[in-house]
Amino acid sequence: MDGVISSWDLSVGVDGPGTRFVVFTCGCPLRCRYCQNPETWRMRDGRTVRADEVMTEIGKYRRFIAVAGGGVTISGGEPLLQPRFTAELLSRCHAGGLHTALDTSGLLGVRATDEMLADTDLVLLDLKSWDPATYRRVTRGPVEPTLRFARRLAELGRPVWVRFVLVPGLTDAADNVAGLARFAAGLGNVERVDVLPFHRMATGKYERLGLTFPLAHVDPPGEALLERVRGQFREEGLAAV
Ligand code: SF4
Q: NCBIfam families in the record, alphabetically (predicted)?
């Protein structure tokens, strides 16, 4: 099976437990204003690879990531834009005893089969908001498919880490965070909430692509705001980091 990817890389701490081999697939239907990976938006900017080639590369790091309690994360872009390729990677890694994670916005959750999710040990779900207006302002897309996918993951009992990017003036409103925290806590399968501080490190990438980073004028959140938001998730009984 062929897929289109932007790159692969090793990461620690942010893409699932332990050291991760992360595959960045290409193509994403959303256009989040804070996106740090604009080079993954269009499939035609990516590289076509066979799943075998990716598995060979993963094999080179297998012992290293397994010893470190890590695994493989399929990220993007949006991996569910290429559901068959993503499913094959997850299935082969899972069958080989590696911990598997799927990093998704959930917009295309209907494309994830129950079999694919059974091969997924952890879903990193980018819950940018629960409120339709805020979600559309952040992503230009609708929130309902993501909320539906989150509920389905809960019904299936699949472990989820919620990722929430904190952007001053965009996602930091107390009622936005409170609503999201209530929603996430009500699911019952959210093991952890990563409150990710917005940053501007992708500005250069945007310039190289001939694009303008829409949030170039926004300052990253300070520690007090981060703690307030983490506190709001903790008040609902969630483990926020
Ligand atoms: S869903 Fe992810 S890859 Fe797609 S635009 Fe948003 S942040 Fe970027």
A: PFLA
Whether residue 35 has its Cβ less than 6 Å from ligand 1: yes
For 153-182, how does the pLDDT look when each residue is reduced to its tens digit (9 = 90+)?
999 999 999 999 999 999 999 999 999 999
Ligand 1 atom with minimal separation from the 38 CA:
8
Question: pTM of the full predicted structure?
Answer: 0.97
Calpha distance 35→41 (Å, rounded): 10
Torsion, Cα of 93, 99, 105, 111 (10° steps): 40
For ligand 1, atom 8: residue with the closest CA: 35
Give residues with Cβ within 8 angstroms of 52, minimum separation 6: none
Compute CA 57 distance to the chain's CA centroid, rounded to the nearest angstrom. 22
